[in-house]
Write a structure and sequence with these properties.
The protein has 257 residues and is an alpha+beta fold. It has six helices and 17 strands. The strands form four sheets. Strands 7, 8, 9, 10, 13, 14, 15, 16 and 17 form a nine-stranded mixed β-sheet that branches. The chain has a four-stranded antiparallel β-sheet with strand order 3-2-5-6. A two-stranded antiparallel sheet has the order 1-4. Helix 1 (18-24) crosses helix 2. Bound molecules: uracil.
């Protein structure tokens, strides 16, 4: 008979029961895991925990078995073509679809590298490599991110120049951006910052609105023809390149993304 699985406490942290952490690490079955935990062979953050249903935070807690840290999880790097209408968090108190609904069979916890708004679609990287994620999201590295934007009205050359040269937003001036016109109301913009709703706010500062916003590239990694809602693993070359993307001095004028 399957055991009743306890419900995780509310919150947006990635949690698993201790029993599941042990069995997923490939050490043994779930019933073996329960008896090992009960027998005091498992510690969490240096303290023995005897409750197999204790909640473990997969990102923060360190679990040891017989005094040895559980093997580090293999690094995984996924590219997701996020559709609009999905939020980039693990759980949503309002019950809206999350990006995890698009990857139901993954037992390994992957977290998104940065966020895309609910209504933004396009390239989102998911990983379990915190250093890699930190490198891509640390504002000091100015990692270039490129968006295809459709505005609600044709934009003038003067509008595009304002986007290019930097404009005043409530949280300070924007850094110079690369902007390429596609047609009257559509353009591509490469920014080297990751401020909250930045592209939307830049367009709003022109007295226009964003109709669609799609992230098409991070550095040289492009969304390509990956269908919406689908994922693919990054290649080793792509991961290597991303690990070196951006620099403390880089601006869009300094280096082509
Ligand atoms: N800029 C925005 O306004 N929204 C996003 O999701 C990403 C960049």
């Amino acid at each position: 008979m399957p055991r009743n699985v306890p419900k995780p406490p509310p919150g947006d942290r990635p949690l698993k029961t201790l029993e599941r952490v042990i069995s997923k690490a490939g050490l043994g079955s779930r019933s073996e895991a329960r008896s090992w935990v009960g027998g005091g062979r498992v510690s969490v953050n240096g303290r023995v925990v005897r409750d197999p249903d204790a909640w473990i935070d997969m990102e923060r807690d360190r679990v040891s078995f017989d005094g040895k840290p559980l093997r580090r999880e293999e690094r995984t790097y996924l590219l997701l073509h996020k559709p609009a209408g999905y939020i980039t968090t693990y759980r949503d108190p309002e019950g809206r679809p999350t990006i995890y609904d698009l990857m139901p069979d993954r037992d390994r916890y992957l977290f998104p590298v940065g966020r895309l708004d609910l209504d933004t679609s396009g390239l989102l990287i998911l990983t379990n490599d915190t250093q890699f994620a930190e490198r891509l999201t640390n504002p000091e590295y100015h990692v270039p991110k490129t968006y295809r934007v459709t505005a609600n009205r044709p934009l003038t050359d003067a509008d595009l120049n304002l986007l290019r040269n930097g404009m005043e937003l409530r949280d300070g001036p924007t850094r110079p951006a690369r902007v390429t016109r596609m047609n009257g109301s559509e353009f591509e913009i490469t920014i080297t910052e990751g401020r909250n709703r930045q592209v939307r706010r830049m367009v709003e500062a022109l007295d226009a609105e964003v109709v669609t916003l799609v992230r098409i590239a991070i550095g040289s990694l492009r969304i390509g023809d990956l269908p919406s809602g689908q994922t693919r693993e990054l290649t080793a070359d792509e991961v290597r390149t991303l690990k070196g993307v951006g620099s403390r001095e880089a601006g869009v004028g300094a280096k082509r993304p």
